[in-house]
Amino acid sequence: MSVQLVMTQVLNGLGLGMIYFLLAAGLTIIFGLMRFVNFAHGAFYAVAAYCSYAVTAAGGNLGWALLLGPLLTAVLAVVTERLLLRHTYKLQHEAQILITFALTLLIQELVIVVFGPMEMNVPVPAALSGIVFIGPVIYPVYRIAIVLIAVLIAVLMWLFLERTRFGAVVRAGSENQEMVALLGLNVDRIFMAAFALGAALAGLAGVLVAPLRGVSPGMGDEALGIAFVVVVLGGMGTLTGALIGGLIIGLVQSLMGILWPGGAQLMIYATMALVLLVRPAGLMGRE
C-alpha cells in the first residue's frame, strides 16, 4: 500500500467527514432542541440532491443549486412541520419514527414519479473540475471546495449558535425545554425555525455530494443511517460532537475502502459501538 494512496484516502475521508458533519449538524439541532426523532432527514438530503440535478440539467450551475437546494428543503420542512409534525411532538418517539418514516416513503415515491427510478449523474462545475498537487497527491479541486464550504458553514454555525439570541435559545432549549417556554418565548416558532435550519443543512450536504455520487431515489436511506451514527458517536445535541463524529466516520469509511472494501460499512457501526462501550453518552455528550 503506497503512502500516496493512504494520503489520498485520508483527504477523501476529510471531505466525506465534512459532508457527514453537515448532515449530522441538522439532525443534532432538531433532536437537541426539540427531542424529536426525524427519520425524514435523509429525504430532505435527497430532495436537495435532485434539485442540483434539475438545476444543472436545465443549464444552470451548481452555485444556483447551492442556494436553491437548501432553500427548497427549508420550505419543505416548514410546510411538513406546520401541517403534520408539530402535532407529533408530545407523542412517543416510536410514533415520531413511524410518521417521519412514512413521510420519507412519500417523498421518495414523489421523486421517482418526477425523475424516474434510475440513478443519474450531476456534473462537477467547470470552474472546479481541475486538480491540484498536495505534496505527492493529485487531488480534485471540487473535493477541496467541499471541505472549504463545510468549514465555512461550521464557523458560521458556531457564531450563530454562540453569538445570537436565537442560538442562545437553541442552546437553552437543548438543556431545558420548559425553561424556554417559561421565558415567554414562542416555542412553536422556535421549533419551526430549528426544523427548517436542520433541513437546510441536510439540503446543503445533498447538493455538495451530488456531483461525487450522483443521485438516486434511495440515497437518503444511507445518509440517514450515517447521520444517526455520527450524532450518537459525537454525542446528542452537540455541534462539536457532530463535527468530530463526522470526521471520524468519514476517515474510517475512506480508509477501510482500501483495507477491507467489503467491510467499510460494517466498520462504521463497529466504530460507533466501540465508542459507546467507553463513553455511552458519545464523545462530547453529557450523561
Automatic annotation (TrEMBL):
<keyword id="KW-0812">Transmembrane</keyword>
<dbReference type="GO" id="GO:0005886">
    <property type="term" value="C:plasma membrane"/>
</dbReference>
<dbReference type="GO" id="GO:0022857">
    <property type="term" value="F:transmembrane transporter activity"/>
</dbReference>
<keyword id="KW-0813">Transport</keyword>
<dbReference type="InterPro" id="IPR052157">
    <property type="entry name" value="BCAA_transport_permease"/>
</dbReference>
<keyword id="KW-1003">Cell membrane</keyword>
<feature type="transmembrane region" description="Helical">
    <location>
        <begin position="64"/>
        <end position="85"/>
    </location>
</feature>
<dbReference type="Pfam" id="PF02653">
    <property type="entry name" value="BPD_transp_2"/>
</dbReference>
<feature type="transmembrane region" description="Helical">
    <location>
        <begin position="12"/>
        <end position="32"/>
    </location>
</feature>
<keyword id="KW-1133">Transmembrane helix</keyword>
<dbReference type="InterPro" id="IPR001851">
    <property type="entry name" value="ABC_transp_permease"/>
</dbReference>
<feature type="transmembrane region" description="Helical">
    <location>
        <begin position="258"/>
        <end position="278"/>
    </location>
</feature>
<feature type="transmembrane region" description="Helical">
    <location>
        <begin position="39"/>
        <end position="58"/>
    </location>
</feature>
<protein>
    <submittedName>
        <fullName>Amino acid/amide ABC transporter membrane protein 1 (HAAT family)</fullName>
    </submittedName>
</protein>
<feature type="transmembrane region" description="Helical">
    <location>
        <begin position="190"/>
        <end position="212"/>
    </location>
</feature>
<feature type="transmembrane region" description="Helical">
    <location>
        <begin position="97"/>
        <end position="116"/>
    </location>
</feature>
<feature type="transmembrane region" description="Helical">
    <location>
        <begin position="144"/>
        <end position="161"/>
    </location>
</feature>
<feature type="transmembrane region" description="Helical">
    <location>
        <begin position="224"/>
        <end position="252"/>
    </location>
</feature>
<comment type="similarity">
    <text>Belongs to the binding-protein-dependent transport system permease family. LivHM subfamily.</text>
</comment>
<dbReference type="GO" id="GO:0006865">
    <property type="term" value="P:amino acid transport"/>
</dbReference>
<keyword id="KW-0472">Membrane</keyword>
<keyword id="KW-0029">Amino-acid transport</keyword>
